[in-house]
Amino acid sequence: xxxxxxxxxxxxxxxxxxxxxxxxxxxxxxxxxxxxxxxxxxxxxxxxxxxxxxxxxxxxxxxxxxxxxxxxxxxxxxxxxxxxxxxxxxxxxxxxxxxxxxxxxxxxxxxxxxxxxxxxxxxxxxxxxxxxxxxxxxxxxxxxxxxxxxxxxxxxxxxxxxxxxxxxxxxxxxxxxxxxxxxxxxxxxxxxxxxxxxxxxxxxxxxxxxxxxxxxxxxxxxxxxxxxxxxxxxxxxxxxxxxxxxxx
Length: 248
Known about the structure:
- The protein is an alpha/beta fold.
- The chain has helices at residues 6-12, 14-22, 34-43, 77-88, 124-137, 168-179, 230-246; strands at residues 24-28, 48-52, 93-97, 116-119, 141-144, 156-160, 186-190, 209-211, 218-220.
- It is 33% helix and 16% strand.
- The longest helix is centred in the last third of the chain and has 17 residues, at 230-246.
- The protein starts with 5 loop residues before the first helix and ends with a helix.
């Protein structure tokens, strides 16, 4: 009988679709990348999704984030995503957490309860903490490297962190993970050299805060440029890898 996942089932078959229905996936970060990951996972028939993000939609999100519309300005991204997913699949279970994932909030999550974890966080400290805890829990994790300041949506690759190059964020992550004894993590990264954003293009916009891996001091960086297609592609690749790995 035809249903909303019939076209996917033609590719995967009923047994693998049942695996997806029973799977529990946690997505950390619902911005330009994570929002598209959640969208694709929901449309792939994932049974349970945990959504972790403490941010609300702001005007500068409208150019690239699937959850951002004029009607959703000021609303929490996890709440928007939950409503959207249930509109797609009313049978899905959606757990939402208005949490900024960092070492001081990490204990709120038992990562061992998930079948897969997606890291779409944009702070180094949060990414390191999540990856380290995921690996210790034995839960598969995939991490997105830098998607900002890029224009080539075809330059993304799926690789082990040890095989990455060019991407500045991947370089930092390789170094910091190695300090923690971690040399192998599945990542999505771009080999495109980042473009320097134009000065004052985002005048008046709040600068992004990046938490330093050591010490706890907050460093400020220039607001990265972004567009409608590069983060989206990264997010869809993440979702595709999750589906592929869960249905092996």
